[in-house]
Write a structure and sequence with these properties.
This protein is of the alpha+beta class and 348 residues long. Helix content is 47%, strand content 8%. The protein is elongated.
Length: 348
């Protein structure tokens, strides 16, 4: 008898062969390869099944009551080719949509609420082909949702950092009042804000804090500032920064992209803003939306304003800072929606 020939291990292909273009093109390429290869594998298996003898009696009167070679999709077997193929394709589509909609370059800029919504939509997306056309449609929808909801998010964050916690003794210092255009209740955020964070420390006496609670509290602040920032900035992973600080026992002066943060065991978080230009843009945007600034703000020079307008500028930021706004209107006064997130180019 001739010895059976053992099949040698297939040589691994060069993974760089798959990497061409940007992240999305890579995913689509891998998706198409996985679909084609998996479909052919299932086809070959189902063609082989009728020829795999079953119920063969042995000397011990036992039986081979199932094929030696079996196949399943996920953890479930299948009875026919169509069932196996359809279940396989749906699972593959779900996997790749999940990879896309959980990629930090895409959902990292979404607020926590929008991120949760898109994460939950992965199951629905399993019914849609993972193609460039469909991806572009999803990216366009995400972008429009951000543009439509970012104003509400900015306003909510402004209130959270000012009046929402003004009842809290330490947080009273958050609000810096100024003489508004139509009201004397106008206010802005200064260089520091203090907000309560319940349960940030699991127990009194421990030096480590709850990283999930800390990250969730800070993430929307950073995302809003990142959206307002029209400059090219180096990406800083907030989650990694918070986890590294917790591992090192650091609770003070934790440096993030736009601020430094201190955690206190009494349940407060002190946020010290380090990017004055972004803070100015933030305050200007909110003040304009709420009609706290003159309607000609940013359009005329300080010396051309009436005395009432000059008084508002003096109390809001001062003549010199206003001159800086006039000189850089494209940054300080860019309307929401004029800085769309170019997902496809960002993912290259």
């Amino acid at each position: 008898m001739k010895r059976a020939i053992e099949h040698e291990t297939m040589a691994d292909g060069d993974s760089s062969d798959l990497i061409h273009g940007n992240f999305i093109e890579l995913l689509i390429s891998q998706f198409n390869i996985e679909v084609a290869a998996g479909t052919e594998l299932i086809r070959e298996y189902t063609a082989l099944v009728p020829y795999m003898l079953q119920n063969i009696p042995t000397a011990s009167n036992s039986y081979y009551n199932r094929p030696i070679l079996s196949m399943s999709v996920g953890q479930k077997g299948f009875d026919d080719w169509a069932e196996g193929i359809n279940r396989y394709l749906k699972d593959v589509r779900r996997k790749y949509w999940s990879a896309l909609l959980n990629n930090e370059n895409i959902v990292g800029r979404l607020t926590s609420q929008l991120r949760s919504e898109y994460s939950e939509s992965v199951h629905k997306m399993a019914d849609y082909d993972f193609s460039m056309f469909n991806i572009v449609q999803v990216m366009a929808e995400i972008n429009s949702r951000i543009v439509a909801g970012v104003k509400e998010t900015i306003m909510s964050l402004f209130d959270r950092l000012t009046v929402e916690h003004s009842y809290y003794p330490e947080s009273k210092a958050n609000i810096h009042y100024f003489n508004g255009w139509k009201t004397n209740k106008a206010h802005k955020i200064g260089k520091k804000a203090i907000i309560p964070v319940h349960g940030i420390f699991s127990s009194i006496g421990r030096d480590t804090f709850n990283t999930h609670s800390a990250t969730e509290t800070l993430s929307d602040i950073e995302k809003v500032f990142n959206y307002l920032d029209m400059r090219v900035m180096t990406h800083v992973d907030l989650r990694s920064i918070i986890h590294r600080a917790e591992r090192n026992g650091q609770t003070r002066n934790i440096e993030c992209n736009y601020f430094k943060v201190d955690f206190y065991k009494k349940g407060t978080m002190h946020i010290k803003f380090t990017d004055q230009e972004i803070m100015d843009r933030f305050n200007i945007y909110v003040a304009q939306c709420r009609n706290w600034l003159p309607p000609y703000y940013g359009e005329v020079d300080y010396d051309e304003m009436p005395d009432e307008g000059k008084a508002v500028i003096d109390s809001f930021q001062g003549k010199e800072s206003y001159a800086e706004v006039r000189a850089n209107k494209g940054f300080y006064m860019a309307a929401i929606g004029e800085n769309p997130i170019k997902f496809l180019s960002d993912l290259s």
